[in-house]
Amino acid sequence: MSTSSSGRIDRPALIDPDEISGAMPEPQPWTAPLAPVPLNATVTIPGSKSETNRALILAALADGPSVITGGLDARDTQLMRQALRALGVRIEENGDRWEVTPPEVFAAAEEIDCGLAGTVMRFVPPLAALAAGTTRFDGDEGARIRPMAGLLDGLIAAGASIDRGANGLPFTITGRPDLPGGQVVIDSSASSQFVSGLLLAGTRFADGLDLRHEGPSVPSRPNIDMTVQMLRDRGVRIEQPEPDHWIVSPGTIAGGEFVIEPDLANAAPFLAAAAVTGGRISVPRWPAKSNQPGAAIADLLALFGAEVSLDGDVLTVRGTDKLEAVDLDLHDASELTTVVAVLAALADHTSHIHGVAHIRGHETDRLAALETDLDGVGADVRQTDDGLVIRPKLLRSNTWLTFADHRMVTAGALLGLVIDDIELDDVGCVAKTMPDFVDLWTTMLADSVAAEEEAGRA
Length: 458
What we know:
single chain, 458 residues, UDP-n-acetylglucosamine1-carboxyvinyl-transferase, Chain, 23 strands
């Protein structure tokens, strides 16, 4: 890959940094390191955020104690544990072993801080709806523009009393331990988490839950499949007579042990690093089958022209001499959009990304953010109604704005492997889901240099 440099381009942030809540630390600028050699390393990825927070919710709702091992310790999961403790759940942490004891009844909390965590703002309210009393929910400024209507409409239909503004957060829930549940119809086209949040608690509703989605298609369906499977693994009876219809029988959730898979979406930038540098990256403990949407990165990298192999539980990606243009519908794996967009900006021809209109409502408007940042480094990027058209051009150094979005951090780091002097305005926000990212990234480069030197001595 060739590189060039030019003067920096000043561009406005999509969310004014001065408006971000004080709950977030001060920005931490970081220059993404250039890869001095084709990367050659094995990278161990921390646990899945999606599985960790679902496991915490299920353990809080269970009929007895549970143990979670290998859970992710990051801002999103810390906020989840704080929220559950506020509702009366006891969580004892001993390294990567967490012992969770549910309360006999949930207690209303004065306030739940959701930060920017979609799983907290969408999975915890159904538990608060089971508590006698009123609980207030709020979060970072960026969280106040994230969609919530589908979930809150569903809880009102299930029998909760909710006082909310026009945009979701902040809101208050006045719950009841005998929340009726029953028939609920929602529009979950803005987030699959609306469905998952209701399903996770549905068996504790007095009449169970008969949930229907009506509206445009639900994004990220593998995340709903993950929720359903984790509930069934805990003895919950769920029927799905139609694709957008779920019936959860009233009953209990069994306690037990949860062993968390690596976060496959967080593995994506590391594996993609092999493709952009013509190197080799391996990730151990890769599941043979997973409901994580991030599992799709293996097939996506193959479409870009990389060589992908699974040997036992080790997934290995080897880069080739070029990246091929793609035409992809990422509706079910939208969390990979930022990595895919960087790969497309380095590919041989124009690429098209479809099916991801809903990521405008994530930590930031990711389509606008990608257009802003990739245009800033010289690519030709155009937003469509549901995606991006990316035309590669000779790229240059520039500031990479992260917009308080962890996925934009990892995308900027990936680009920085092959374009010198990519300066991220804030690497700290990656702590939302991967606080050890910088250490893992720089270790990957150091291990690659050491491997190159060892090969030279051989």
